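name: query_chain
kind: protein
chains: 1
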Amino acid sequence: MNTRSLFRFFSSDLAVDLGTANTLVYTRDKGIVINEPSIVALNRHTGEVEAVGTEAKQMLGRTPGDIVAIKPLRDGVIADFKVAERMLNAFIRKAHRRNRLVHPRIVIGVPSETTEVEKRAVLDSTYRAKASEVFLVEQAMVAAVGAGLPIDEPCGNMVVDIGGGTTDIAVLSLSGVVYSRSLRVAGNEMDDAIMNYVKRQYNLLIGERTAEAIKMDIGSAHPLAQPRILDVKGRDLIGGMPKCIKVRDDEIREALHECVATIINAIRTALERTPPELSADIGDRGIVLTGGGSLLKNLDQRIRIETGLPVSLADDPLASVVLGTGKMLSNFKLLKKVSIN
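structure:
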């Protein structure tokens, strides 16, 4: 085996965005190889894994009594240790084409206010999923790298990463975190707000997948140019029968008001706590939004109105964290500098 093929054999390192909603896996030579929901379908009786990722999501809310669909992450951290380990194991094997001999080095992004216990849960789950070495990095930091921000320069950069379980807000300069805050209000909380609104307003019970579809279709943070109406199907709470209602975009905006306001207030607080020199940089460069939650219609416009600052969306908001984490695989010096474990 020559040196080049030996290097290829060992260049099995992975970058993982272990998200509450989706898990993305990046390899140095192929880029993003996995982008699937963070869900595992388990057989209640045998404890066997029936499906992982996309296949398991299709079973959500539709499983027979002996199969249960579990989301092992909640609010950006591991809630079910054993299931998270099995999910990671499945994704790592899939990334390496089921090769059991590969024990990769893995870089994982975690929310900025992750406790020591939560960090230990991520490390243990990843090591048990056959990793040889694990590095933890702050999600906001790698999201900024993935969005192409010059984090190593002596100037202020502000990134707001709105994921499924957490919203991470950070001000970065010279490859360091000047200010960071992690809120447990993000995409999933928005889905819950829509479910509760429809239940309260229309006595209609809808599932998570329906709420997410409503959010993506007519959800917004600021009035739309053209008002929109959507047909929503669910179960009538009074009669117990299937029922279809019409929901307007302004109603969903009202349902999401509290979640959006919480995120904007946290951005304001971050701006107030930023040193004046870096504040001036952010005034010029503006705020960069990443993460799936940043795709909420007119959210950038609403933040611009509330803060008076320029706001832009990353080129690939859904993949910013994993792309930034992936860049760490080929920049070991930076990885050592920003690693938090």
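note: The radius of gyration is 21 Å.
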